[in-house]
Design brief:
Helices cover 48% and strands 20% of the residues. The protein is built from 10 helices and 12 strands. The strands form 3 sheets. The chain has a 5-stranded parallel sheet with strand order 2-1-3-4-5, with helices on both faces. The protein has a 5-stranded mixed sheet with strand order 7-8-6-11-12, sandwiched between helices. The N terminus is likely disordered.
Length: 318
């Protein structure tokens, strides 16, 4: 019996639904003997509650049941918002063309006529696993594409698209918990001159070196880094006040200034200017937006550039 099923694993638990206790037990015993993890319910209502609390890649449900029949269960499962697909096999003693069409239109993927033939069951489970594998691979590909669309290809840091969404979440969280939030806008000094003198490839190496340096110098899984412009980076510091942000900026300034980027037989050293903007959120005083915070950091960065190489300017929003 076990050899007749396609490599069952615990990653494919099956939910079976049937109000006939004997038939439910026979099917459950058969699937468990084949190595599948099985959860059983005696009607659609109970099955739906189980489904809401646990993901089942495969659901095998009888059609005619009390409380909620198989067609209603199929529709309810399809209405559940989930990023993972469930393959539904409808078990029925109704085998007319109209009945089959009604089952498929309700959301079922396949159907089996009762009593279930073991050879047909094997074929349906094999189809289910193939579809689920394809769906899983598709979701992985889509997630990889989405991840790549949020990452700057030169530096490996997040890009502006990621920032536009994430920074608003950080501000909302700051207000929710009345915590501080700070931004550090960093501009590599004389970057255009480096690219023109040493070539654009050298410019990319400088950007990558600075990005790696910044990532290593901030808190992992708390702070995050964005390539903000051609030669600009943005460091977002959750739960960090003005004084703490200035300390971080000074640390980053030293790290960049002491970094040597090797390009062929030469070493390039760079400096950077820093603009710091921060605020401490209060539910009694709303009004700080992402654009406001970014504008203030940009103003501070402009002042730092005017003051000369390796300068830091900051502002605390009240």
């Amino acid at each position: 019996m076990t050899d007749s099923y396609p490599n069952p694993t615990l990653s494919f638990p099956i939910l079976i639904v049937d109000d006939d206790h004997l038939l439910r037990r026979i099917l459950e015993t058969s699937l468990k003997a084949a190595g599948y993890e099985v959860v059983a319910a005696e009607n659609g209502k109970d099955a739906l509650e189980l489904f809401k609390n646990q993901y089942f890649p495969i659901v095998m449900t009888d059609w005619i049941m009390p409380e909620m029949d198989g067609l209603e269960l199929c529709r309810a499962i399809r209405n559940e918002v989930t990023d993972r697909y469930t393959f539904i096999i409808l078990l029925t003693s109704l085998d007319s063309k109209n009945d089959v069409i009604a089952g498929l239109e309700s959301g079922a993927d396949e159907y089996l006529v009762k009593p279930v033939n073991q050879t047909e069951l094997k074929a349906r489970l094999k189809t289910a696993r193939r579809i689920l594998d394809l769906e899983n691979n598709l979701q992985k590909s889509l997630e990889e594409i989405r991840s790549l669309s949020l990452v700057d290809p030169v530096t490996g840091t997040y890009n502006r698209r990621f920032m536009d969404d994430r920074i608003n979440q950080e501000i909302k969280r700051a207000y929710r918990y009345e915590h501080s939030l700070a931004l550090i806008l960093i501009s590599i000094n004389n970057f255009a001159q480096i690219s023109e003198t040493c070539g654009y490839y050298s410019g990319d190496l400088v950007l990558k070196g600075c990005a790696d340096c910044l990532v290593e110098a901030v808190r992992k899984d708390v702070d995050w880094l964005v390539r903000y412009g051609d030669e600009e980076f943005l460091v977002v510091l959750p739960e960090t006040d003005a004084a703490g942000a200035m300390i971080v900026a000074k640390r980053l300034r030293i790290r960049i200034a002491t970094m040597a980027i090797k390009i062929y037989a030469n070493e390039i050293r760079v400096t950077a200017s820093f603009g710091v903007a921060s605020f401490t959120a209060s539910r009694q005083k709303l009004g700080v937006t992402a654009q406001l915070l970014l504008d203030k950091a940009d103003q501070c960065l402009h002042q730092a550039r005017e003051d000369g190489t390796d300068s830091i300017k900051g502002i605390q929003l009240s």
